[in-house]
Design goal:
This is ABC transporter ATP-binding protein. GO terms for molecular function: ABC-type transporter activity; ATP binding; ATP hydrolysis activity. Belongs to the ABC transporter superfamily. It holds the Pfam family ABC_tran. InterPro entries: AAA+_ATPase, ABC_transporter-like_ATP-bd, ABC_transporter-like_CS, ABC_transpr_MalK-like, ABC_transpr_MalK/UgpC-like, Mo/tungstate-bd_C_term_dom, NA-bd_OB-fold, OB_MalK-like. It is a single chain. By secondary structure, this protein is of the alpha+beta class. It has two domains: 226 residues, Rossmann fold; 121 residues, Nucleic acid-binding proteins (OB fold (Dihydrolipoamide Acetyltransferase, E2P), Beta Barrel), CATH 2.40.50.140. The chain contains eight helices and 20 strands. The strands form five sheets. It has a six-stranded mixed β-sheet with strand order 6-7-8-3-9-10, with helices on both faces. Strands 13-12-11-14-20 form a five-stranded antiparallel β-sheet. A four-stranded antiparallel β-sheet has the order 2-1-4-5, with helices on one face. The two termini are 30 Å apart. The model has no long low-confidence stretch (mean pLDDT 90).
Length: 360
């Protein structure tokens, strides 16, 4: 049986009449890297701040390592937090920033030195210990901010969009370092981001949030391949999943002249479905050129816009009146106005109920 490091039960948070979190339940496993993902205003940072004790909840309970911490102060919860802003003391050296909290806790000097030494080795910042934050790059400052949480030797680390202030290359580099850090420490880590690349690459599981609720909690692969609703399907992926409105009858999805056999589709409920439906297919799952022989069906489209992107080429078109995008090889010779044959593989499509927006 999987042990939980953090348990959240029936959590509510309101600011006046505005409900930010609503009856939210969440179990976070021991040693798990869980990412809270969603657009601005979805409640992900608010949830993290509730776990941290920085916000007073309206209702529900929060447990960390089996202890009810709902009304405890942040320093009594056994957590370390890394914020979007580095929040370093500019007048102190890196060593001083790392040891400041431990000195305030009246920890013995030898233990402080040992913890600072260990954290600096793990984060590879030993040469920076005698510098002040003003002499560090953004990436180095964020490492120090992570180190300040690391020296506390806590069970749960909380990260609130720690990489959002960095440029693209530094974000990619620090993503790798965070993943290695988690594998090395095996502590529970809860990470807030609006960046789906960060979520997909870092997470053991992702909780996708909208309007203070969790829309889907699953592994990155499951969320990508089997989104539970239209919101998740459209949120994950760049560019987003294509959607085509139509109807299912006799194990065939039709939309205008488009006819797609769905007899082998993996229905969530286990049974076939007749009636209105929305077919979803990701741009990277559309088959072209030499991949067409493996397609379960094909259609012809005209390229409206072509975007060369190096490794691949993104083609914009329409299919039965619906905007439609697909990827081709980066070396594909295609231009606006070209007619292209595309195909689908039924193992890579999704079907949704247009009323409930849930996956069929």
């Amino acid at each position: 049986m999987t042990k939980n490091s953090v348990e959240i039960r029936n959590l509510d948070l309101s600011f006046g009449a505005v409900k930010v979190l609503q009856n939210l339940d969440l179990d976070i496993h021991d040693g798990e890297f869980l990412v809270l993902l969603g657009s601005s205003g979805c409640g992900k940072s608010t949830l993290l701040n509730c776990i941290a004790g920085l916000l007073e909840v309206t209702g529900g309970q929060i447990f960390i390592k089996g202890h009810n911490v709902t009304w405890k102060e942040p320093n009594e919860r056994g957590i370390g937090m890394v914020f979007q802003s580095y929040a370093l003391y500019p007048q102190m050296t890196v060593r001083g920033n790392l040891s400041f909290g431990l000195k305030n806790a009246r920890m013995p000097k030898p233990e402080i030195e040992e913890r600072v030494k260990r954290a600096s080795e793990i984060l590879q910042i030993e040469p920076l210990l005698d510098r002040k934050p003003g002499a560090l790059s953004g990436g180095q400052r964020q490492r120090v901010a992570i180190g300040r949480a690391l020296v506390r030797d806590v069970d749960v680390f909380l990260f609130d969009e720690p990489l959002s202030n960095l440029d693209a290359k530094l974000r990619a580099d620090l993503r790798v370092e965070l993943k290695r850090l988690h594998e090395q420490l095996d502590n529970t880590m809860i990470y807030v981001t609006h960046d789906q690349v960060e979520a997909m690459t870092l997470a053991d599981r992702i909780a996708i949030m909208k309007d203070g609720k969790i829309m889907q909690l699953d592994s990155p692969a499951e969320i990508y391949n089997r989104p539970r609703n239209l919101y998740v399907a459209g949120f994950i992926g760049s560019p987003a999943m294509n959607f085509i409105e139509g109807n299912i009858a006799g194990n065939t999805f039709t939309s205008g002249d488009l006819s797609v056999p769905v007899g082998d589709y993996d229905y969530m409920s286990g049974g076939a479905h007749d009636g209105a439906a929305i077919l979803g297919v990701r741009p990277e799952h559309v088959l072209t050129d030499d991949m067409l022989p493996s397609a379960d069906m094909t259609a012809k489209v005209k390229a409206d816009l072509v975007e060369p992107m190096g490794a691949d080429t993104l083609v914009w078109t329409s299919l039965e009146g619906h905007p439609f995008r697909f990827r081709m090889d980066g070396q594909a010779h295609v231009k606006s106005g070209d007619e292209i044959t595309i195909g689908f593989n039924l193992t890579r499509i999704s079907l949704f109920d247009p009323k409930t927006e849930d996956r069929l």
